[in-house]
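Bug: token stream looks shifted between consecutive jobs. Job 1:
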Amino acid sequence: MKDLKKSLKRFGPLLGIILLISLGCKKEDNNESIPSTNPPVYENGEGEIGAIGGIITITDSTSPIKGAYVDIPEGALSEKVNIKISEAPAGIEFVMNPQMKLIKFEPEGLIFDKPIKIKIPYSNIVVTDKTYIFHYDDKSFEITQMPKISIDQTNKLVVGETNHFSYYTVWNQDVCIFQEMLKINNKIGLSLFIEDMKDIPTNPDYNNLNQIDNAWDAVLNGPSPLYMVFIADLYTENSFWQQPVSSLRLHIKRAITGVSGQKAQIFLYGGSTYFYETEALSEP
């Protein structure tokens, strides 16, 4: 027993040091096994984002889409997904203005459980209160305005929200739509007024003779089957990422009448018989 006490007295400090070192290593090992709860931030335009969310951006000063950005909040994804931001490939251009930067967010078609924040860089435009982020469908050529959060004029970025990945760009909304909700015979009605359609830029080449400068000239003079599709969605709350309770699509096209001026005819989308026809259009 005396020998044991002498040994402990002699080696006790050394055992204490060994014990501290052992505990220190154990603590360090525990830290390595605990996954980080901080959302990741990738600055090269690509990275893996999971349920805790994260940020992907492009900070390379030589990139033509420097500043492109997506902030995915916690809970927007249920599993890890490789997210990528890039410039649209050659051959895919914004139909309203090919000079605008068109940015692709991948995986294309990915839908989020919560709205996400995106930033889109712009150039070659004069920023106004009509400047928005637009979603562009390169297959149907549909253009959808996204909710705007702000405009960062110092860094030339428009900040907005969306709930899915596809192509996005910045554009000045030349067409203004004013609407008023009405109650008509116990049904919801909508009074709608569209202005400034004459300012929509288009580039059709008809008869190989002239290059039309804008949509109003196309309506009045072009022989092509010019048309537009108007989509009205009704929501129970001000949340565009929710499913609408009702949706209506109208197909509006020019009527070739053979008389001075042109008429617009309005169809239910996919229908063959119009239910409304305007008077002959003329220069406003």
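Job 2, same session, no restart:
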Amino acid sequence: MFESVLPGSKPGFSTSAKAFLALVAVACIAWIAFVLFRGTSQTDAERVSKRFENLAKLNEANAKKMNSYAWVDKAKGTVQIPIDRAIDVTVSDLKDKAPAQASPIATPAPAPAASPAPPPATGASPTVTPTAATSAPTASSETSPIPTPAAAFTPSESSASPPPGVSPSASPTP
């Protein structure tokens, strides 16, 4: 781009291109030095002090509002009270109230009661038959470690009662 196009001249930057690049480099260095090393002016210090004054006035007004009584809306009877008094009133109100449930909790529907197993037929008793590997005699129901269907769990009246909050008519009867 900056190469000389004259026959017999050496390829490279022309003198005017070198001077332009040097001028741009000096301008960049001067701008960086100006930005980095400039001091705060008198107007900056004045603005900072004015901001601190405004902040002090705002904090004073907030403190006055937080610690005084005033009418917010006289027609509606709304008043402003000091924050310490508001905390005391709120705490005393909350002490008098019972905790409320956050949201209604749905109770699950009761599971249907399991029906008891039918009793064994009269005269018939379960027996254990020996296998080819064992030569144990036939065991009667009195000595058998296997429970009979009559010994199975049957729900009592107390376990079949509905959970709290559910009407008895909605629960199934055993």
